[in-house]
Amino acid sequence: MVPAVGDGFDQRVYAAVALIPHGRLATYGQIAELIGAYGCARQVGWALRRLPLPSAVPWHRVVNAQGRISITPSREGSDWIQRELLLEEGIPVDVEGRLPLRAYRWEAALSELDGSALASSPRV
């Protein structure tokens, strides 16, 4: 189950990420902008890192602005889990974590954000 939208930064991140459709991608910066926290892409990454796995929040659909999975030892294997989950959704990812962001990037429609607390939250 997706955590409820609330005043906390992490909850706003999870609510925004939950909107990303199957087979589409968003960037950390894109999620930050959606929740009204422009320039807080790194904080979005940390919020997603705090999610316990497995999670119903589709965290694996969020990648960096260069169209890559952020592969680092500190992710303790979640980078490879992310790669496998994206492949299962039909998004091609090479062994170095590169993917065609331009072809699969999700653009949020305003109707998806209507009535939510996503864009009305204060900057972190």
How would you sum up this structure in a few lines?
By secondary structure, the chain is mainly alpha-helical.
Layout of helices and strands, plus pairs?
Elements: H1 9-17, E1 26-27, H2 28-34, H3 41-49, E2 62-63, H4 78-88, H5 101-104, H6 110-113
Parallel strand pairs: 1-2
Account of the protein in words:
This protein is mainly alpha-helical. Helix 2 packs across helix 3. The two termini are 25 Å apart. The chain has six helices and two strands, in the order H-E-H-H-E-H-H-H. The protein has one domain: Winged helix-like DNA-binding domain superfamily/Winged helix DNA-binding domain (Arc Repressor Mutant, subunit A, Orthogonal Bundle), CATH 1.10.10.10. Strands 1-2 form a two-stranded parallel ribbon. It is 35% helix and 3% strand. The longest helix has 11 residues, at 78-88. The chain is globular.
| Strand content range | under 5%
Low-confidence stretches: 1-5, 120-124
* Gap from first CA to last CA: 25 Å
In CATH terms, what is the architecture?
A: Orthogonal Bundle
User: Main beta sheet: strand number and arrangement?
Assistant: 2 strands, parallel
CATH class: Mainly Alpha
| Order of H and E elements | HEHHEHHH
Strand segment count: 2
User: Rounded to an integer, what's the Rg over CA atoms?
Assistant: 14 Å
Mean pLDDT score: 84
CATH superfamily: Winged helix-like DNA-binding domain superfamily/Winged helix DNA-binding domain
Shape: globular
